[in-house]
Write a structure and sequence with these properties.
Elements: E1 7-11, H1 16-27, E2 31-36, H2 39-53, E3 58-62, H3 68-82, E4 87-90, H4 100-122, E5 131-136, H5 149-171, E6 176-183, H6 197-200, H7 207-217, H8 222-234, E7 242-246, E8 249-252
Parallel strand pairs: 1-2, 1-4, 2-3, 4-5, 5-6, 6-7
Antiparallel strand pairs: 7-8
Helix pairs in contact: 1-8, 3-4, 4-5
Length: about 260
């Protein structure tokens, strides 16, 4: 799949992994719609990208992904501006065991919402041209972390949903591939608070375990995760695949073959 002239929409795009995903798509000729709740960071990134890739290649839309209306509006504006949509990346995510409902709402519920919106625009059954959706999970979606039960649950949900909806898309001949990406601890702003009392909430007593876990596993660079992301986007054989990205490199999680 060539990215020249393709249009991508990324949630949580202003920094961290979202920023890395946007940049690798731009480098490969795609146009990118940047969505983020952080307006200042989003506008700053848009300005930075304008200087390198040209203003027409990106757009920025303030968006709280927990708002159904805001997310629908952002998708609508993207298609109105670029006249097409080919790639959706549901990347927005947080870690927050104190406000665990919001953690699940952002990490899981909004991902499902974004996937269905992507299918609505790209599905060949709806007159779309097909495309690909990449949902960002985590290694915590495969191997749960005890200092983040709600976070682990939300990321396990991303994996399960992505595998199921990928099969449904294939069975329904929608022409849209869906994959999930599971990075290990990555050098992004979320790492600055991963062991904080506020984020750990009722599990604040596990602060030392959180710190030791990160030290033992290591922290990878967003550029490595972006390489994996690009692979999932461009390799048309990938559908329902669960990619892992760790300090050992890029790999895929193996599951028993489904009989459905």
């Amino acid at each position: 799949m060539s990215l020249a002239g393709k249009v991508a929409l990324i949630t949580g795009a202003a920094q961290g992994l979202g920023k890395a995903f946007a940049e690798i798509l731009l480098k490969n000729g795609a146009k990118v719609s940047l969505l983020d709740i952080n307006i200042a960071a989003g506008l700053e990134l848009k300005s930075t990208f304008d200087k390198v890739y040209g203003a027409p290649q990106t757009m920025f839309t303030p968006c709280d992904v927990t708002s159904d209306d805001q997310l629908k509006d952002a998708f609508k504006k993207t298609v109105e501006n670029f006249l097409q949509l080919d790639i959706v990346c549901n990347n927005a995510g947080i870690g927050d065991e104190k406000n665990w409902e919001r953690c699940v709402d952002i990490n899981l519920v909004s991902m499902i919402r974004g996937t269905y919106l992507g299918l609505n625009y790209m599905s060949k059954k709806n007159g779309g041209a097909g495309g690909v959706i990449i949902n960002i999970s985590s290694m915590a979606g495969i191997n749960p972390i005890i200092f983040g039960p709600a976070y682990s649950a939300s990321k396990h949900g991303v994996v399960g949903f992505s595998r199921a909806i990928a099969g449904a898309s294939m069975a329904e001949k929608l022409g849209v591939r869906i994959n999930a990406l599971c990075p290990s601890f990555t050098d992004t702003p979320i790492m600055e608070t991963i062991s904080s009392q506020e984020i750990l909430g009722q599990f604040a007593g596990l602060e030392k375990i959180a710190i030791k876990t990160v030290a033992a596993v290591g922290i990878i660079d967003p550029s490595l995760v972006a390489e994996g992301f690009l692979q999932l986007v461009t390799d048309e054989s990938k559908n329902g695949d669960i990619m892992t990205v760790t300090s050992n490199g890029i790999d895929y999680q193996r599951y028993p073959q489904s009989h459905l």
